[in-house]
Amino acid sequence: xxxxxxxxxxxxxxxxxxxxxxxxxxxxxxxxxxxxxxxxxxxxxxxxxxxxxxxxxxxxxxxxxxxxxxxxxxxxxxxxxxxxxxxxxxxxxxxxxxxxxxxxxxxxxxxxxxxxxxxxxxxxxxxxxxxxxxxxxxxxxxxxxxxxxxxxxxxxxxxxxxxxxxxxxxxxxxxxxxxxxxxxxxxxxxxxxxxxxxxxxxxxxxxxxxxxxxxxxxxxxxxxxxxxxxxxxxxxxxxxxxxxxxxxxxxxxxxxxxxxxxxxxxxxxxxxxxxxxxxxxxxxxxxxxxxxxxxxxxxxxxxxxxxxxxxxxxxxxxxxxxxxxxxxxxxxxxxxxxxxxxxxxxxxxxxxxxxxxxxxxxxxxxxxxxxxxxxxxxxxxxxxxxxxxxxxxxxxxxxxxxxxxxxxxxxxxxxxx
Length: 417
Known about the structure:
Layout (H helix, E strand, L loop, with lengths): L2 H8 L10 H13 L12 H21 L7 E9 L6 E8 L19 H11 L4 H12 L5 H9 L2 H8 L6 E16 L2 E13 L5 E9 L4 H13 L4 E7 L5 H8 L4 E4 L1 H10 L3 H15 L4 H15 L4 H9 L1 H4 L7 H7 L3 H14 L8 H16 L9 H12 L9
Parallel strand pairs: 3-6, 6-7
Antiparallel strand pairs: 1-2, 3-4, 4-5
Helix pairs in contact: 4-17, 8-9, 11-12, 12-13, 16-17
């Protein structure tokens, strides 16, 4: 036995076989009654976790040596600090003379035990907590010190999951899509640069919402939207009945290039907001009262007459606003074709704006993200959490679906088996 082995063996603790559970149980109960934590730094369960792992590693090595036809044998133990949801502890891992033993329960370079602590860290990150806040929380809860680099490595483990989610197959047909972009700051070369995150929410044939994808680009534009829509098509979408969008130049053309049978509905709420930008305060109330008669009309014909009345009354004073309504009219009035059940779904992009508001709540403490990956990770994790609530159909969906079948006919294929 060499000198190193002698040092290790001298420090060897009592045999694992001599571990007395009854003694541990009595000590654990006493500590709990004294107010000690169950799982934390020096937690009550920590010694038991350590002993179980060390015994399991011994069994692994026994099995390894049993199947090796050589003179290989035990060669002392090495120590390493483990981080776990039960608190940190020093683990003694057995080794063999040939260094051929590769433990599975706790791998050679593994320092974090299991997935529970990692999942906890990822959950905290999904809530929008900074790495510093997560470090403080983990240290307070478990007595574990973690570097920012280690936290980043843990959250990076979801990147393959994001790629898989982003390329997953989609349904062949979606009755409705809502498409919009949200903007964030990301640090590049020491400067905060604006990035556009393109998001698409679809309502499937069962009336259930789904986030179909998130895409990152330098800015929002129809050219990149064309790439996004092409990707949706490549992932399986063949038809979209109605797509609700804002008034981005070239956006409608991009949609109809990829899905030529789709109708495009410009968001009426966006159009109203854009109108208000050019209205002085003294005229807003009166103008909006007249404008409401346009977009809340019962029929297309009444809406067109009310738009003419609006132009007659306000056109000379606010020509830019009225020209905008007239120029966008064909894609603003599409919802008048449909009964109220469908109108209320398509006349606005509020569904996707609501999703964006939820994302903003999670990211509001962030000034600029350290990287594009950091931005996409938190948006994905937050979105997965939000989508847990998207399991049921939208209100009155069966009635809405029947009307869609009457209007769009064979484009909607129902499985009645």
